[in-house]
Amino acid sequence: MTLGHERLDVxxxxxxxxxxxxxxxxxxxxxxxxxxxxxxxxSQSIPLNIAxxxxxxxxxxxxxxxxxxxxxxxxxxxxxxxxxxxxALDKTESRTRKDELDRMAAMLSRLGGRGYQVQEEHEVYxxxxxxxxxxxxxxxxMEPQHQPGGDA
Length: 152
Description:
Shape: elongated
Oligomer: single chain
CATH superfamily: 23S rRNA-intervening sequence
Number of domains: 1
Structural class: mainly alpha
Order of helices and strands: HHHH
Helix content: 55-70%
Largest sheet: none
Mean pLDDT: 82
CATH class: Mainly Alpha
CATH architecture: Up-down Bundle
Low-confidence stretches: 115-120, 133-146
Number of strands: 0
Distance between the termini: 61 Å
């Protein structure tokens, strides 16, 4: 008997990734232990949330679990960066696994019914970013504005 989530390519890909993380985590101790522990949790979160999300009947519930799984995949990519900087993970091997994580994130976005966005675009905020956006008040005429009737 095969459960529904076991038929999903993204689930099988996630299980393969978890197996690789377990293999790599065995040698991570000492200063790398916090990253190792977080990496194990984040990697396990991917297939666990895929399975739970696939079992939901409401679209909003399914989307929520698939978004959590996608976030965990992106977190794993960041943890790999941390381990590369700490000289605990090979950059070339990490790149291959990051490609898998990116593929999982894209698949999860499609399953969740939302677009997959790798980076922010300036259009999201409406205008070009201010290069001097340190939020300091320059000049005396730049007093903070209070809304009428507000407690601020």
